[in-house]
Each structure stands twice: as C-alpha cells, then as structure tokens.
Amino acid sequence: MATTDEREYVLGTGDDELQRLGLQHRLWSDAAHAAWKRAGLAPGQRVLDVGAGPGYASFDLAQVVQSHGRVLALDESRPFIEHVREQAAARGLTQIDGVIGDVQRLGEAVGTQLPFDLAYARWVLCFVASPESVVAGVARALKPGGRFVVHDYFNYEAMTCAPRRESYAKVVAATARSWRARGGDPDVVGRLPRILRDQGFVVEHIDQHQRLARPGESMWHWVASWWRNFVPKLVQMGEITEADARRFFEDFDGMRAETDFTVLPNVYEVVARRV
Ligand SMILES: C[S@@+](CC[C@H](N)C(=O)[O-])C[C@H]1O[C@@H](n2cnc3c(N)ncnc32)[C@H](O)[C@@H]1O
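A: This is the predicted complex of the input protein with S-adenosylmethionine.
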C-alpha cells in the first residue's frame, strides 16, 4: 500500500479545493447535523472527524460538544490540518485538535486520545484503498455503544443532467474511472454495511439524500465548482481529451434554469453502533 507521502488525494489540497470544500459543507451541513443528532451527539462528547479535510464539519461538531467536549480532526493533508489548527485558534475553539495521518492506520494517528463517543467520515471512504482498515480503526477508537456516522457515495454514475448530454455522461464515467484507478471506490457505501458488521457494528440506519440543482441555485455552484476543479484534472490524468473538456464546458455553461437541471450524486447516510 502506498504511504501517505507517496499518494495524493485525487482532488489535491490547494486553495481552490479548500474553497470548494467550504461551500460543499455549507450546502450539506443540514444533513450532517441531522445525522449527528440521530447518532446522539451531545455536549461533552469526544468526536473523531475521520478525513476531516480543512475541518469545516469539525468546527460545527466542536460547537455542539462545546468546550468541555473534544473534537479530533484527522487528515493526511498537512495544509488542511494547518487550516484546522489556525481556524480553531481564530474561532476560540480550544476543544479541537488536528492530527496528520492516514485514516487507514487510524490507531497510529490517534492512539493516545481514545476512546471516542462518535466518529464521522464524510466523502473519505470513497477515496481510500481499504475502507476495511478505516472501519477496523474506528471500531477500536470508539467506546462500546459509540456511533459511526458516514456520508458517502453509492451508484455515483447515476449522476446526470436533464436533458441528458453525452459530454456530461463522459465526464461522470471518467470521474468514477479515475477514482477506481487510484484505489478509490465511488460505490463504497454498497459494501459498507457488510464491512461494518464484520467489524462488530450494528447498522442502525441507512438512507440517502437525493438532490438536484438548476442553474443559478446554490447547489448548482457546488456542482459547477466540482467540475471546474476536477475536469482539468481528468485531462491531466489522461481520462478525457482537451476536446472532451471543451465540449463539456460549452454544454454545461449553456444550460439554462428555465429548461435544464442536473442530478447530483446521491449521498448515502449510514449510522452504525459499535457493540
Ligand atoms: C472530499 S474531502 C472531504 C473532507 C471532509 N470530510 C469534508 O466532508 O469536508 C476528502 C478528504 O479525505 C482526505 N483523505 C483521503 N485519503 C486519506 C487517507 N488515506 N488518510 C487521511 N486522509 C485522507 C483528503 O486529504 C481530503 O481532505
């Protein structure tokens, strides 16, 4: 398995991705808060944010657990964890700490800080080669009765636009292919209930959030920011040609609120209890 230094998160960790993740969190924070509530998140608890990125969910989690709780943000990206630490200090959230490490070797990264009441992993399992290792590490990190909340993808290639366009179908297929080629799995939630059961969890809840966006809506900007960042990467990776990318943006930029919409990839929600 590649080490943290050898492998790079497929979207990179630059400022454009930091901004995109901020918008993404604002648009999906209602779903996150509802899932945490379902899992019993409460003041005073200890929470692990698995693959926390720049920490947007961690900051919200910290406000719920309050100053007598604790949030540990774990991510392999140094710039993202530096952002977590800087922002935690700027916001006076002394209950947050950031740790750099591989979520597939979770014990090494968080070993001294166990145990946790709740772990949260959003859009991380789809990027790792071994979700089994992540779930095993989370099982060891949680207290008996602790909850693992996951938001991630299944059936990613159902993402489409209406009316359908060949250029759109091409970039969706190339995106899924590019994740798979780098060890990820855009269908990971389809395997997750079994992985959880094998690691001693009871799956309490599975549901999905299906959304669509019309040009000009906030959700549209999430989709647009995703493609602006990722389509050039698909060209660099050799998954599509420059002509494919040009054609895609011509079609995408030509979509109109009166006539067109885009169907977002379903975000699946899983809440599991460690026995
Ligand atoms: C799409 S972002 C999601 C960030 C955050 N969970 C959120 O919802 O805002 C995926 C994150 O997973 C991290 N990541 C991917 N593979 C990882 C690994 N093996 N170990 C630690 N972090 C990883 C990336 O650095 C990135 O910050």
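The two ends are 29 Å apart (CA to CA). The longest helix spans residues 15-38.
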